[in-house]
Please model this.
Amino acid sequence: MEYKNLQIDREEKIAIVTINRPQKLNALNRETIQELHQVFSVLESDNTIKVILLTGSGTKAFVAGADISEFADFNIAQGADLAKKGQTLLFDFIANLSTPVIAAVNGFALGGGLELAMACHFRVASDNAKMGLPEVSLGVIPGYGGTQRLPQLIGKGKAMELILTANMLTANEAKDCGLVNHVVPQEELLALCKKLATKISRNSSAAISSAIKAINANFDFDKNGFEVEIKQFGSCFGTKDFTEGTTAFLEKRKPNFK
Ligand code: COA
Model:
């Protein structure tokens, strides 16, 4: 399938999704959000893809935010609708995807760009990356989950400061507060992400999907995370991966998960 604003590459069991609007610093317009939804749906149902990497084209930006030119004249109802549709179609959709998604943050991740990175299962940044939620400087607040996911990741006080000041963090500052897991020179970013993805891809996809559900339940007020963990733990016992994983251990060999 062809995408106007995305480039998709596959390397063995890894898919690399690159947001490709470099002239607009990969800002998320409506069409790009739709395309991302579509490609993540397709990749999730592709059993040969075990991990997805998400990055931005060029060397300057991951994503410089939601496309401001698309909502500058919106009214109250349109604003609420924009946030709701975006959260449902893309941000919550990625967070709850059963295939793990790693954000390779290769430059500016601002506003909707940082929200997109935060919706991914974890983040790795290049040393030139700058991250922040500058929405209050535009007279609006983060609307794609940023007010919820940032405090979950870095704590309430730091999130308050970052959102209220509209300041940007450097990559190392983001690492120090747990927003990104690793910082590497830009030319090593994809290599490190692929290394992590390869490691993940050798584990059981069924167990990984259960782990994502159980971890996410910790942040869902409608769910009891411990109960979700019990259910997901039990469901693992009904999978072929569990039979293969435990048999391989007892036979002193590496498991071969499909
Ligand atoms: N929405 C729409 N267009 C955007 C954009 C966004 N969020 N971010 C950047 N662009 C566009 C610029 O308008 C410019 O387009 P033009 O060449 O047609 O004028 C192009 O991308 C390059 O950006 P520019 O501002 O010239 O680059 P810079 O190096 O001077 O500054 C940033 C880089 C990231 C600091 C700056 O682009 C910026 O502040 N962007 C908006 C960040 C933001 O507030 N995001 C939250 C949105 S809710």
User: Anything to note?
Assistant: Residues 24-25, 27, 64-69, 108, 110-112, 134-135, 138 surround coenzyme A (CB under 6 Å).
